[in-house]
């Protein structure tokens, strides 16, 4: 068995960071190598080096046992290396055909774009690998699952036989993930070799032939899936033992804290993205809202927190309507919000931590007296919270922007939990965080629930929804498909609902 | 559930529908109150259809009884407004079209009552006046499609105008003047591209700097050298009118479209060529990709920086032609600040034209029309102070930029630096 690809001693330094430190990996022909590691472990940097987007400071790359010099994407493509990026590299206002041909456009009459030839070739590739797609559709009209197919077609159109898939399952429903795995198997059967980058342990165990684990820019080990367990891989990734299951006692729901009735919300582009949603959240329970990203969850949360006005329906917080209430008003009635985009909506990155820790209550005593802020209480508050919530920072005076994602999230949690709250709205609270921080945030949410707070958890990670929720609402295209009890539901059932199919209907067909 | 979705979906729609309807009805009433009331019954308005000195076959002028025609236009506006409120028309383009057409035509009928108004002449001058605006707009289109904003187009045109007239006068050839204007335009654009791409200077700041520099340097050269030297530096003559054989004989259309000078033809040609380049060639596909999602283009091996340099420089060359129009294309000499904001109006035309060449040209024609209307109205001695009439093109610019007439979508990466 030959190695189609080998990286030896790759080192890459960014100012102040050693992103890759003497990394060796090898990919066997016709196999799937899973590259496992937390965010910031250096996986993406390594792949960007391989694809020619970054230049390594040291190290060699061998393709089919010949050393190659990759200066840019064109060199990588010439070596048969293709990359499916985590954030799709597609131009939304162009068609599938135009996106596929970009960069290597065939011409007719010596001058004009030859769209027909390309769309014919796309059809051939679709048929060969089971990647069904309409070559004339515009990217912006396609669901993410199909967009990913377009990315794969783009790579295959360039005749790549080494495919790098960077976090390909991050944006997919469980069913779409199944579909992707099928496609991957077809590709392997056709003789392609694949590097599969992920931080999801179960996927690695399901599909990989070899596993290489990266941590803080170095390879910490390579292992075969048959010798590995989720726990073992997790501790390799994090560098210590982690507890993957969230421990919690059965919920003791009390009276209703939030009631939503037939709610309609328009997003900024005037699309009706929440269409007739009704549910309630009681004290002492976690209501999980599952669903693929972009099915109205964001707008729902915005409406609940007063960031977007709603068209019709009612939202009652502790039996009082919050129609047209200002965000501050809602906040003062005891709502805490962990926003989905922590860097844009959760923190002011250019403000020091101590200011970020009092953003909700800066105008009140003890932080303010009349028109002036009170430095001493602000610093004391910050010191206490940083200690209590284990925020790893050199001091409370540094800017929030300098912290890691996990610590930024801890700052938000600390701020929101430091005042008396009745309802916690947590939107994608652990997106992009390392396993250690996820563990911590989960514990905090459960602790808040046990203290009698109602929790609305919005997440596109099914594992997270299942681990934390007492009841689960599934959103699809702005509507709630169903609300289920967490202990009477399965992942498959949720997956179908997330794709807009009622399990009862599915079994009939 | 579906029912309520429809109802709620239609509230904003309804508001929009009614506001357009009201606007049309108000226009109808305004036509009646402003124009019909002041017009004597039996007054005739003559629209001249022949252009003096043109080769077109002569046709008889159009004589319209003013009052009935104004009543008719008012009625059209009111009825279409009422229909809009009751039923709703989907196309806002049509509504705005009806609104503008009825109002402007009624205005002309009233303004030129008992007098003669040369329609062909006005259309012809609209096209000519649209030319520098269109060239500025094309410069904007080509740069911004590759995501580089170039508001320095005003300054580039001013400098190119001066360079064109001086080089043409000194060399005695208008073509040398045009070529030099194109070169200087390309050169200044290259400088703009260099500092915004290489050094990531804010694109607007760089553009403003070019404009200030342009005003300063041309005014200085003009007052220091050109006024003293007079004919030796600042008297080039202009490109002659070229009548296209056969086509120029068509009444009305002939004098408007087929009796123009080189730069006007060149502009129309550039619009067509740029449309084809942008949508049907690899270069165009790459340009648009670089403007929408540069990272995507980069990962496919497209050289983002190179595309941007090339596009901005070509844009500068087109702006250079626009500059040449002001001197060797129309009056044959340079005056200080003679571009008078046409570059900025061009950028407005680009936005209104949705960043595509044909749209940009069409909206330039609207601006050109507003400009030439203003001139004609001064000649007609309409009882409106000429200062207000001079504002017409700029007021049209502002109305269009408020987005009343549909919101345009710029290229997604427009104005953003690209870092690998």
Walkthrough of the structure:
The complex is a heterodimer of chains A (about 500) and B (about 425). Chain A is built from 18 helices and 24 strands. Chain A has about 500 residues and is an alpha/beta fold. Chain A has three domains: about 5-240, 3-Layer(aba) Sandwich (Rossmann fold), CATH 3.40.50; about 245-335 and about 420-509, P-loop containing nucleotide triphosphate hydrolases (Rossmann fold, 3-Layer(aba) Sandwich), CATH 3.40.50.300; about 340-420, no CATH class. In chain A, the strands form six sheets. A six-stranded mixed beta sheet of chain A has the order 6-9-10-3-11-12, with helices on both faces. Chain A has a six-stranded mixed beta sheet with strand order 18-21-22-15-23-24, sandwiched between helices. Chain B has two domains: about 1-115, no CATH class; about 120-400, ABC transporter involved in vitamin B12 uptake, BtuC. Helix content of chain B is about 70%, strand content about 5%. Chain B has 15 helices and five strands. In chain B, strands 2-1-3 form a three-stranded mixed beta sheet. In chain B, strands 4-5 form a two-stranded antiparallel ribbon. In chain B, helix 1 (about 1-35) packs parallel to helix 3 and helix 9 (about 260-280) packs across helix 10 (about 280-290). Residues about 1-10 of chain B have low confidence and may be disordered. Chains A and B meet through helix 2, helix 3, strand 8 and strand 14 of A and helix 1, helix 10 and helix 11 of B.
């Amino acid at each position: 068995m030959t190695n189609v690809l080998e990286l030896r001693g790759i080192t890459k330094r960014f100012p102040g960071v050693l992103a890759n430190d003497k990394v060796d990996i090898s990919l066997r022909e016709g196999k799937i190598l899973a590259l496992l590691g937390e965010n910031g472990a250096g996986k993406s940097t390594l792949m960007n080096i391989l694809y020619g987007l970054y230049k390594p400071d040291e190290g060699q790359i061998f393709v089919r046992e010949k050393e190659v010099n990759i200066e840019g994407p064109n060199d990588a493509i010439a070596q048969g290396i293709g990359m499916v990026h985590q954030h799709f590299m597609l131009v939304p206002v162009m068609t599938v055909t135009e996106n596929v041909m970009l960069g290597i456009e065939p011409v007719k009459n010596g001058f004009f774009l030859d769209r027909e030839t390309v769309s014919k070739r796309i059809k051939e590739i679709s048929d060969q690998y089971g990647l069904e797609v309409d070559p004339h559709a515009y990217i912006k009209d396609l669901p993410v699952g199909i967009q990913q197919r377009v990315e794969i077609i783009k790579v295959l159109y360039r005749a790549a036989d080494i495919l790098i898939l960077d976090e390909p399952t991050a944006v997919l429903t469980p069913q779409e993930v199944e579909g992707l795995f099928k496609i991957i198997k077809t590709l392997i059967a056709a003789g392609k070799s694949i590097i599969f980058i992920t931080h999801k342990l179960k996927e690695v165990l399901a599909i990989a032939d070899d596993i290489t684990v990266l941590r803080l820019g170095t390879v910490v080990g390579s292992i075969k899936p048959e010798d590995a367990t989720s726990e073992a891989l997790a501790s390799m990734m994090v560098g210590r033992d982690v507890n993957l299951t969230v421990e919690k006692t059965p919920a003791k729901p009390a009276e209703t804290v939030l009631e939503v009735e037939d709610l309609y919300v328009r997003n900024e582009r005037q699309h009706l993205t929440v269409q007739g949603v009704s549910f309630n959240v009681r004290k002492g329970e976690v209501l999980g809202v599952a669903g693929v990203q972009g099915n109205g969850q964001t707008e729902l949360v915005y409406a609940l927190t007063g960031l977007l006005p709603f068209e019709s329906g009612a939202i009652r917080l502790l039996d009082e309507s919050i129609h047209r209430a200002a965000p501050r008003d809602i906040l003062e009635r005891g709502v805490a919000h962990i926003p989905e985009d922590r860097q844009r909506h959760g923190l002011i990155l250019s403000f020091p931590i101590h200011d970020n820790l009092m953003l909700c209550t800066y105008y009140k005593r003890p932080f303010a007296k009349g028109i002036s802020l009170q430095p001493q209480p602000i610093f004391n508050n910050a010191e206490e919270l940083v200690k209590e919530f284990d925020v790893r920072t050199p001091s409370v005076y540094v800017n929030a922007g300098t912290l890691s994602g996990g610590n930024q999230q801890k700052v938000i949690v600390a701020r929101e939990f430091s005042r008396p709250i009745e309802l916690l709205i947590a939107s994608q609270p652990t997106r992009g965080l390392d396993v250690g921080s996820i563990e911590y945030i989960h514990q905090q949410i459960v602790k808040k629930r046990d203290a009698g707070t109602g929790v609305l958890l919005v997440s596109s990670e099914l594992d997270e929804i299942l681990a934390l929720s007492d009841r689960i609402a599934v959103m699809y295209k702005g509507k709630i498909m169903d609300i289920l009890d967490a202990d009477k539901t399965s992942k498959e059932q949720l997956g179908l609902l997330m794709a807009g199919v009622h399990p009862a209907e599915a079994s009939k067909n | 559930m579906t029912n309520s979705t429809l109802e709620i979906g239609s509230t904003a729609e309804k508001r929009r529908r009614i506001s357009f309807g009201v606007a049309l009805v108000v226009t109808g009433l305004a036509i009646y109150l402003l124009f019909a009331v002041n017009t004597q019954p039996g007054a005739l308005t003559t629209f001249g259809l022949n252009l003096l000195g043109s080769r077109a076959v002569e046709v008889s002028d159009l004589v319209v009884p003013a009052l009935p025609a104004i009543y008719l236009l008012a009625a059209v506006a009111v009825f279409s407004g009422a229909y809009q409120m009751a039923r709703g028309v989907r196309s806002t383009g049509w509504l705005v079209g009806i609104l503008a057409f009825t109002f402007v035509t009624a205005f002309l009928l009233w303004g030129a009552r008992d007098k003669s108004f040369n329609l062909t002449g006005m259309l012809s001058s609209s096209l000519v006046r649209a030319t520098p605006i269109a060239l500025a707009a094309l410069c904007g289109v080509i740069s911004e499609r590759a995501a580089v904003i170039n508001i320095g187009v005003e300054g580039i045109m001013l400098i190119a105008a001066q360079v064109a007239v001086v080089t043409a006068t000194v060399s005695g050839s208008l073509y040398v003047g045009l070529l030099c204007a194109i070169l200087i335009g390309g050169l200044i654009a290259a400088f703009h591209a260099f500092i915004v791409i290489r050094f990531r200077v804010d694109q607007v700041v760089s553009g403003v700097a070019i404009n200030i520099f342009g005003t300063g340097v041309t005014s200085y050269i003009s007052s220091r050298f050109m006024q003293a030297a007079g004919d030796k530096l600042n008297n080039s003559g202009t490109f002659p009118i070229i009548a296209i054989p056969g086509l120029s004989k068509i009444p009305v259309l002939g004098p408007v479209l087929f009796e123009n000078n080189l730069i006007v033809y060149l502009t129309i040609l550039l619009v067509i060529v740029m449309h084809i380049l942008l949508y049907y060639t690899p270069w165009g596909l790459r340009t648009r990709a670089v403007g929408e999602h540069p990272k995507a283009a980069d990962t496919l091996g497209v050289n983002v920086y190179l595309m941007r340099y090339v596009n901005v420089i070509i844009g500068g060359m087109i702006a250079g032609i626009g500059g040449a129009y002001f001197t060797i294309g129309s009056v044959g000499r340079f005056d200080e600040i003679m571009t008078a904001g046409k570059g900025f109006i061009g950028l407005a035309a680009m936005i209104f034209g949705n960043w595509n060449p044909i749209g940009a040209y069409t909206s330039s024609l609207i601006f050109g029309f507003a400009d030439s209307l203003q001139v004609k109205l001064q000649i007609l001695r309409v009882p409106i102070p000429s200062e207000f009439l001079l504002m017409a093109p700029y007021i049209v610019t502002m109305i269009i930029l408020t987005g009343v007439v549909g919101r345009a979508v710029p290229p997604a990466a427009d104005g953003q630096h690209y870092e690998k």
